[in-house]
Design goal:
Length: 426
């Protein structure tokens, strides 16, 4: 099953976890104390860029059915929607810019260019996901109620359709998120799932209707004879934005190394253990400054989960300090290219579509699901610290030792199997 004792899994003492929490708290204080004009300039420049791209896209499509202008218009609209969704909507609604006291860039007033109401999303994401991150049975973002992403979840026949459901989810991601958030809102208010006329349902219908009219009726109608071209461009831009958001979210939450946790762990979780859960339950995407910007700096998913309400443009500098702490406490810092992280997530989607009896590993020791019990057979024999350097030996060392023993065990079994075959031949 998933991790029940994060202290045992991380190979840290209680004092280590308290010290680690204090160091994370220090990072938060330093960033909060240094927020100022350069951060304000950043977010204002992003807003200007997003608006310019949208105007360029709309103008390129206006009154023309030429293929070249369709490509330019669609590309500009796609970028505008990606920036609005990732760097603006997501981060503004996290409260990252509330410290500016600007009513136009505030978590309480921002409504994003997406089918789901922002209030629904903030309840489901800001509260539920970031409080119960990767706790199986509490965090509905573990598979979004559609995909089985951990062996801790019971296999059901519907999971056989995961590969197809995954493609549909990617293409319609904004709708998947909106319906997911609607369900969370109805559950919070005690509205039965089968009741279709309620306050949350009406809020969803109004927002979704407004988005559909804007993209599929209003802007195409403005372009007159070119309305079909504009309609197809709007649809394409929405799909491109959906696929990109889907990729970023899945690469940050579901590759190997993004751990899952149990409700038993959460019941007595300390502040330091909360930090550890965010660190061990998330994964980053490497790729440079362009990747950082286009993901809304969610390429730093680890830093975002540690400090979801700090300005996103500060995540690169925060990441340097987080990586240093991982080195100090011998903890893994899960990162990789977009292609690698998505391949690992995609492998999990397809692998867990089949019943467990067809899988080799267990829910305690699998690439996508593990617990502290994976170390029961092979634990590091070295002391907790190196005598010469005083360096801790923690989870990173334990994972290395475990992997070395696992490789040796596989080689031993292959050798025994080969000897049995040769003996049978003789």
């Amino acid at each position: 099953m998933a991790i029940t004792d994060i202290r045992a899994f991380s190979h840290l003492t209680e004092d280590d976890i308290v010290a680690l929490a204090n160091e994370f708290d220090a990072i938060r204080r330093d960033v909060e104390d240094s927020r100022g004009p350069r951060d304000a300039r950043y977010i204002h420049s992003v807003i200007r860029l997003q608006r310019v791209l949208e105007v360029v896209g709309r103008c390129a499509l206006f009154g023309s059915r030429r293929r070249s202008r369709w490509i330019v218009g669609t590309a500009a609209l796609s970028l505008a929607k990606i920036i609005e969704n990732m760097e603006l909507g997501h981060n503004v609604m996290h409260g990252q810019w509330d410290w500016m006291n600007d009513p136009e860039i505030h978590s309480t007033s921002w409504e994003w260019d997406q089918t789901g109401p922002s209030e629904h999303w903030k309840r489901a994401h800001n509260y539920a996901h970031h409080t119960y991150t990767n706790i199986v049975g509490m965090d509905e973002d573990v598979g979004f109620g559609i995909l089985r992403m951990t062996r801790d979840e019971k296999w059901r026949p519907r999971n056989l359709a995961q590969p197809i459901a995954n493609i549909i989810l990617a293409l319609t991601f904004e709708w998947g998120i909106a319906l997911h958030d609607l369900s969370a809102k109805k559950e919070l208010e005690g509205v039965p799932p089968t009741q279709w006329i309620s306050g949350p349902d009406k809020e969803f219908a109004v927002k979704a209707g407004r988005q559909v009219v804007k993209d599929l009726v209003f802007f195409p109608a403005l372009t007159g004879p070119a309305w079909r071209s504009t309609l197809s461009a709007n649809l394409a831009a929405n799909v491109i934005r959906n696929i990109w958001a889907y990729l970023v979210i899945f690469c940050g939450h579901f590759p190997d190394g993004a751990e899952k946790f149990t409700t038993e762990h959460y019941e007595n979780e300390t502040r330091g253990e909360w930090y550890l859960r965010q660190l061990l339950g998330s994964a980053n995407i490497s790729g440079g400054r362009a990747m950082d910007f286009l993901t809304g700096n969610l390429s730093y998913q680890i830093e975002h989960h540690l400090f979801p309400d700090l300005p996103s443009n500060r995540y690169p500098e925060i990441a340097a300090r987080v990586r240093a702490l991982c080195g100090k406490y011998d903890l893994p810092y899960t990162t990789g290219s977009l292609a690698r992280q998505y391949w690992l997530a995609l492998r999990t989607i397809h692998k867990l579509a089949v019943p467990d009896r067809f899988l080799k590993a267990t829910s305690d020791d699998a690439p996508e699901t593990s617990s502290e019990r994976k170390f029961d057979r092979w634990r590091p024999e070295a002391p907790a610290t190196e005598a010469s350097t005083g360096r801790r030996r923690g989870l990173l060392t334990a994972l290395r030792v475990h992997a070395e023993h696992a490789v040796a065990e596989r080689r031993r079994r292959r050798g025994e199997s080969g000897r049995r075959r040769r003996s049978a031949t003789v």
